[in-house]
Amino acid sequence: MLEFLLPLIFLLFIFVSVSLILWRINTRKFISSGTVASAYDSWTQDKLLERLWGEHIHLGFYALDENNTDFRQAKVNFVHELVRWSGLDRLPKGSRILDVGCGIGGSSRILAKYYGFNVTGITISPAQVKRAIELTPYELNCNFQVMDALDLEFEDGAFDGIWSVEAGAHMNDKTKFADEMLRALRPGGYMALADWNSRDLKTNPPSFFEKIILNQLLEQWVHPDFISINDFVNILQQNKNSSGKVISENWNSYTNPSWYDSIIEGFRRPIAILSLGPLALIKSIREIPTILLMNWAFRKGLMEFGVYKCRG
After folding, report:
1. Domains in the chain: ranges and CATH
2. pTM for the whole thing?
3. Percent of the chain at pLDDT above 70?
């Protein structure tokens, strides 16, 4: 038995060692929107995230009174929960929705299929647009375009609703990000937004250790910076196209189980990784340190999962 286990332990050690080296050397620092596009092109083309996590890269929603929620179902649940919480479901069928940072179109397809919306999804990644089109049935009212969220190519008030999940952390100008979305939202329209935020670092400065953690979270997944929930609320409230009433919540308790589940999913679906070859296994292990750091930061309150709703 020992003769059988030792080679496996040795191979695992090699994989983990190589992955940690790659994690430290091959960082994904934000330089421009181009680096964000390149990172998401790579993640999309190697199909690892899609094979492991399905059509939704964002975190899931886990009801506090439920146990054993399926990881992929939790991601679907998140979309429906944010729709209800934000009031987006009050819009009639056929309403025009802009999905900012649409990924490979998972949320867009739910908004079109279950709510009858006419959805336009935009992302900075050409590979994501290509894959989103491939995954979308012809009968759904969805279209996808490569576009910079900081320079939306739409007329003022073109949409009845704006939807954006976990895109703002990649924006190096949060004010411009809000400006463009609210400009494209018609008066009286609905905005539903969710994002990764830091706690208020001005009133509660990070410790030396927390600074190291934040730096790693920025460098590993092409984030220029994080801001607090209150800071983004202020940005939205001060915008000339906003009604001025912005409501926000911290959904950490509902979303935190996603971090461990995103790792466990690799053990639930090992063929999803192994079928892509040895390099995919190294890539998947390489992401584990960042996922664990994210989990720690969100559990300790250094990071917060902010959700926002407002009217145009």
Report:
1. 24-311 (3.40.50.150)
2. 0.91
3. 91
